[in-house]
Amino acid sequence: MSLEVNWEQIASSEAIREQLVYWLNDQLKGVEVPKYLADIHVTSLSLGSKAPEITIRDIGKPFDDFYDIEEERAGTGEGDEDDGRVAPTSTPMKHQTSGSSDQTDASNPISPSTSHDHENDMQFVTEIKYDSDICVEVAAQLLMNYPAEKFISLPVRLKLSDLLIHTLAVVAYVNHRVFISLLCDISENEDTDNTESHSGNLRALSSKTASRIDVVKRLKVESELGSYEPDNGSILRSVGKIETFLVDTIRNLLVQEVGWPNWIEFQGL
């Protein structure tokens, strides 16, 4: 069953764009950058006009993991006040915390909840194909550290576009919160009508998640460098390294923050 999305309303929302830019910059603060790069940050974002193609493959009860985080917050007093904002917040799962005694191994992968029964809670397993015209602009400083550290600093502007994602995702609604997590990539020749999720066999699917998720299938990067000598080969090579670093960083952020067993959470819905 295909799902129609009012993409124009989403893409035109200034609040959503600001929240996404804030989230990306917040994630970039925690990324270790190479010595030739500094002050990397997202300056603007456009979601474009092309909506993702969304097909619902399964409808059922939310995973227990989404209730676990709710119960954990209730025990610590978090989330008692809601300001009504819809803000993406990255929430790693409890059993993925380093040193946790609740770690889950491959023999006990994800499964729908059997211990919770909330009237309005539900979960969709969806196929998402996003052949986008999204545009993200990034600014940074390219550092030349010879003959001295930060001997030359040049502004660099990069434009990320033509993002392609084809993935199986879970979208869960639990107590006025929406959780979104990417389960696995889908290859172009894969028969998604017969995928494990469609038959409800999410246990089999989840055990393969770690090896099947890459998220970004295509991402174009264009760069514009500040004043420089055209024959300076070392600078041009560094620009190429920045482009590669940025693509790898975006891919890793999506896998680490949105790939199961992690998720993006929207509050106040």
Keywords:
269 residues; alpha+beta; 10-stranded antiparallel β-sheet; 6 helices; 10 strands; 34% strand; globular
Q: What topology does this entry show?
A:
Blueprint (H helix, E strand, L loop, with lengths): L1 E2 L3 H5 L2 H15 L8 E10 L6 E8 L3 H13 L11 E5 L29 E10 L3 E10 L7 E23 L2 E9 L16 H5 L2 H4 L3 E10 L7 H26 L3 E5 L3
Describe this structure in words.
With 269 residues, the chain is α+β, with helices and mostly antiparallel strands. Helices cover 25% and strands 34% of the residues. The chain contains six helices and ten strands. Strands 1, 2, 3, 4, 5, 6, 7, 8, 9 and 10 form a ten-stranded antiparallel beta sheet that branches. A hairpin with a 7-residue loop joins β6 (135-144) and β7. The radius of gyration is 21 Å and the shape is globular. The model is unreliable at 80-108 and 195-200 (pLDDT under 50).
- In whole angstroms, the N-to-C terminal distance is 24 Å
Principal-axes geometry comes out as globular
Oligomer: single chain
The overall pLDDT average reads: 76
Estimate what percentage of residues fall within beta strands: 25-35%
- Provide the structure class: alpha+beta
- Count of helix runs: 6
Q: How helix-rich are the residues, as a percent range?
A: 25-40%
